[in-house]
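Entry 14. Ran structure prediction on the chain below.
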Amino acid sequence: VRVTGGQSNFEITAQNGMDFPTMPMFKGDRVYTLPQHTVRDIIDATAFAVAQNDQRPAFNGALLRIQDGVFTMVGSDGNRLAIARTVLPDPDSAPDAEMVIPGKYLLELSRMLRDTEEDTTMILARKHIIFKIDDIYFFTRMIEHAYMQYERVLPQVYRSQCYVSAAELTGAIERASLVTEDRLGGNSKPYLKLTFARDHIEIYSVSSGGSIEESVPAALEGDEVIIGFTCRLLLDTLRAVPSDTETLRLRLNSPIMGITIESAALPPLCNASPDPEVFGDRVLDTLPTEKPDGDVLESMYLVMPTRMNK
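Output, structure tokens:
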């Protein structure tokens, strides 16, 4: 191919167009129409947790499940789990489906979607998923591996429940990351120690670059807990919480079990029960929860702790 312009002349080696990979047919047997902001929000709430180049193929993608008119997406890298769901605009006519979509595709798709009520069309074929945004078709092959049964890793009971401001906790963890990133030290990443006390969360970390100690007001029910986290995992999770979330509901069991993070304004996405040894006959949070109504995004995050030095 020769390109000339002004005083410039270019020659570019080209290949036969017949060698280009075959394009799939832009049609499928299941078609859904959703607002662009809904698809973007559910991707932003979960895709951050998808693994990068994991040896387990399914972990390199996010689970997309449509069941009984509810659109659910799940991402996990083994250290954290993100779940988000919303009701489809026309739930009664939405066929059930389940597939694993590559995480890199979702990140690129999120950049193309706008914060608007304009619709995007999602088309499911046998091996491909296609999104039609205006006059653009964006497609990828699905990951043909079964996703883990994520419901099994969700805690069934909790011994501690804490309510805290989302903005205050996120801000404190962001300040702590200045120390835990340890830019002045070696390659080791110090952990972040969180102490859940009756009326506050104490945050502490120390590294060769300095130390931080901070307290965030909170309301705790149940046992007090001291637990450690990798700061980056916890911070990325808090940043993925929907921006309109004012108060977080945190649930814990022990220093070696994961913490769940949800919006306190919505019913629990995971119907865990309060441990009767701690809460007695309390049954408030054991009642079945209904599907969200309308254009409401529910999300829940599970972050696994790290081992702390004694």
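The longest strand covers residues 210-222. Will compare against last week's run tomorrow.
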